Amino acid sequence: MTRPSDVRLLPMTAEAAATLAPRIAGIDPWHRLAIAPDRLARQFAPRDGVEIRLVTLAEAPAPDALAQNAPVGAVVIRRDWLLGPYLQHLSVLPEAQGHGAGRAALALLDHLARADGHRNAWLCVSAFNERALTFYRRHGFTAAAHLPDLVRPGDSEILMRRRLD
Q1: Domains in the chain and their CATH numbers?
Q2: What angle is formed at CA 116 by the lines to CA 113 and CA 119, rounded to 5 degrees?
Q3: pLDDT for residue 59
């Protein structure tokens, strides 16, 4: 069983981005929103003001499903957004979910906020993504705004905020 301490957040590499982007594009919410692999790969590319991390598991939960230290997800954080960092992207491949990668990403978000003297952490989640909404609410995020038709007509996004007082 993988422990949260076995999750590694490392700088994203071009090779990992190229490997992960098509797999992530094939899972919801990105599949439902028709986010193309090349768009995800561009999103994972390093640029100023953005922290980009590759999620790996140091100890694979199932040897036939994951290799040790294999890339299993991506985290993209805009460091200085609206008086705090913004979690622009968090994805974990289905076979690696439930092993602490999401918690590690939120811990990084908090760390960056506090290091920069901010009291807010932000993210946006698709309203249809109940599992993600439950996860973020469980970690103290509350809805700040409802954004209909933001990514795709007919779908809504929910801007969420966590105060770090």
Answers
A1: 4-119 (3.40.630.30)
A2: 45
A3: 56
Can you read off the two tokens belonging to residue 35? 């986010």
Question: Residue 161, Cα to own-chain centre: how many angstroms?
Answer: 15
SS3 per-residue string spanning 55-89? EEECCCCCCCCCCCCCEEEEEEEECCCCCCCEEEE
Cα distances (Å, whole numbers) of residue 38 to 7, 123, 151: 26, 22, 16
Non-local (6+) Cβ contacts of 10 within 8 A are 53, 54, 56
CB 160 within 8 A of CB 144: yes
* CA–CA distance, 62 with 78 (Å, rounded to integer): 32
Provide the residue count of the chain.
165
The per-residue pLDDT for range 6-46, each reduced to its tens digit, is 788 888 888 888 889 999 999 999 998 889 999 999 888 87
Q: How does residue 1 score in pLDDT terms, banded at 50, 70 and 90? A: very low
